[in-house]
Amino acid sequence: MAAELKKYKMKLRDHGLKVTEKRMTMIELFLNEDRYLSAKEVQEQLHKTYPSLSYDTIYRNLYTLKEIEVLENTNFEGEMQFKISCSDHHHHHFICEECGNTKVIHYCPVDTWQNELDDVEITNHKVELYGLCAGCK
C-alpha cells in the first residue's frame, strides 16, 4: 500500500495540489474499498479521524481527485458515487445494487457498436452493468 500511496502523492504534486494528510486518508479509504462510495459514506468514515471535516470539503476533494483521475465516478441510486480509478487498463464494471461491490468486465462492446453506427465516430463511452452479486442474490 505504501508504494500506491507514494504514486498518488506524486500525482497530486504533478497537478500542483497540496499533499495533505486528509487527502491521503481519503485516497487510502478508497484503496481499501472495492466499491463505489457516496460523499456521505466518505464523510462517515473520515469523521472518526477528522470530526470537523465539512461535507463541502469532502465533496470538493472528491471532484478534485476525479479531475486528476485518482477517482472515477458513477451515478448510482440517484447519487454521485466514487471509487479509486482503474486507469491502468480499459474495462467496464458490474455493480451490485445491494452492497455496491464491483467486478471488472474486460470485454468492451464499443467496436461492435461502431460497426453498427457507421455514420458516427464514437469518441468516448462508459458501460456499467447493474444487478445482484452472488452474496446478495
TrEMBL record:
<keyword id="KW-0678">Repressor</keyword>
<keyword id="KW-0238">DNA-binding</keyword>
<protein>
    <submittedName>
        <fullName>Zinc uptake regulator, Fur family</fullName>
    </submittedName>
</protein>
<keyword id="KW-0963">Cytoplasm</keyword>
<dbReference type="InterPro" id="IPR036388">
    <property type="entry name" value="WH-like_DNA-bd_sf"/>
</dbReference>
<dbReference type="InterPro" id="IPR043135">
    <property type="entry name" value="Fur_C"/>
</dbReference>
<dbReference type="GO" id="GO:0045892">
    <property type="term" value="P:negative regulation of DNA-templated transcription"/>
</dbReference>
<dbReference type="GO" id="GO:1900376">
    <property type="term" value="P:regulation of secondary metabolite biosynthetic process"/>
</dbReference>
<feature type="binding site">
    <location>
        <position position="125"/>
    </location>
    <ligand>
        <name>Fe cation</name>
    </ligand>
</feature>
<dbReference type="GO" id="GO:0000976">
    <property type="term" value="F:transcription cis-regulatory region binding"/>
</dbReference>
<keyword id="KW-0805">Transcription regulation</keyword>
<dbReference type="InterPro" id="IPR002481">
    <property type="entry name" value="FUR"/>
</dbReference>
<feature type="binding site">
    <location>
        <position position="96"/>
    </location>
    <ligand>
        <name>Zn(2+)</name>
    </ligand>
</feature>
<dbReference type="InterPro" id="IPR036390">
    <property type="entry name" value="WH_DNA-bd_sf"/>
</dbReference>
<dbReference type="GO" id="GO:0008270">
    <property type="term" value="F:zinc ion binding"/>
</dbReference>
<feature type="binding site">
    <location>
        <position position="133"/>
    </location>
    <ligand>
        <name>Zn(2+)</name>
    </ligand>
</feature>
<comment type="similarity">
    <text>Belongs to the Fur family.</text>
</comment>
<keyword id="KW-0804">Transcription</keyword>
<dbReference type="GO" id="GO:0005737">
    <property type="term" value="C:cytoplasm"/>
</dbReference>
<dbReference type="Pfam" id="PF01475">
    <property type="entry name" value="FUR"/>
</dbReference>
<feature type="binding site">
    <location>
        <position position="136"/>
    </location>
    <ligand>
        <name>Zn(2+)</name>
    </ligand>
</feature>
<feature type="binding site">
    <location>
        <position position="90"/>
    </location>
    <ligand>
        <name>Fe cation</name>
    </ligand>
</feature>
<dbReference type="GO" id="GO:0003700">
    <property type="term" value="F:DNA-binding transcription factor activity"/>
</dbReference>
<feature type="binding site">
    <location>
        <position position="99"/>
    </location>
    <ligand>
        <name>Zn(2+)</name>
    </ligand>
</feature>
<keyword id="KW-0862">Zinc</keyword>
<keyword id="KW-0479">Metal-binding</keyword>
<keyword id="KW-0408">Iron</keyword>
